[in-house]
Amino acid sequence: MTQRGTLKLIVAALLIAVVAIGLAPVFAGPLVRLSIATGTTGGVFFPVGGGLASLISKHIPGVAATAEVTPGSVDNMRLIQAKRADLALVNADAAYDALKGEDVFRGTPVPIRSLAPLYNGYGQLVTIDGTGINTIADLRGKRVSTGAPGSGTELMALRFLEAAGLHPDRDIRRERLAPAPSADAVRDRRIDAFFWGGGVPTGTVIDLAVSPGIRVRLIPLDGLFPALQRKWAGVYFKSVILKEYYPGLPADVPTIGIAVLLVVHQDFDAELGYQITKLVFERRAELAQVHREAANITTLGAANRSPAPYHSGAIRYFRERGVEGF
To answer: pTM for the whole thing?
Structure first.
């Protein structure tokens, strides 16, 4: 082979190497894997978290996200604390307790930061005709599920019972079931009612409402607000569940609301925090195809909707958008 031919081969080999190096990231697969702590399969956290995982994997290059089934808000904060989850959906009351190291987090505060307020959750006390339950006070002596251990529902339910002057272990016959088993137990008349804290509509409540021979009732909870406000000012607010959310409801139901947040550990990457925050707000229409609550995602009032400080990546996005309070 001539010297010129040898030189051509060397140049060609170098070009192939350069191209291979340039293409390496394309074939190497995701560079970052994220875990999103959500909730039970019967609630709203899981489908919303699953939709968010899909959006992240689709629209942020080099990142793949997975939604993880969990008991809910309280356990999600523990997962963030242990850095066994990267992002989490959480009710604002559990986020507040985690940040401050109060209640079930006493002595072990969790350094969380918010990326976005997602939507509002609703306190739901679900029963059916024939149980004799018309107010929360009527739960006395009844068989009641207060939610799964480690869930935001359980935290909320215990506070609602306290506000109503009821003790969870003395005044009711308590079960600790996730939403789907709770609905099954009401349907089979093994319990009389169950608490649920989450977005609307919730699939398990709809399934119960359309069961033959069943008429679902939601018990008004707005009367608890003064007692809740005295002890946890700014965490809960009055809200209303519209009758069209669940088949058979005769009227709108006044209740207690709470913000649902997307949070991370304070050490979460700033650039990734920015990209995810931007994705949540600018692709909410895609997320709403998974669950209608995502259509309520808004920057309006965001500065005052989280008890936890905002992550630096989120602050960057809000400032670019000119959101008030940032």
So the answer is: 0.85
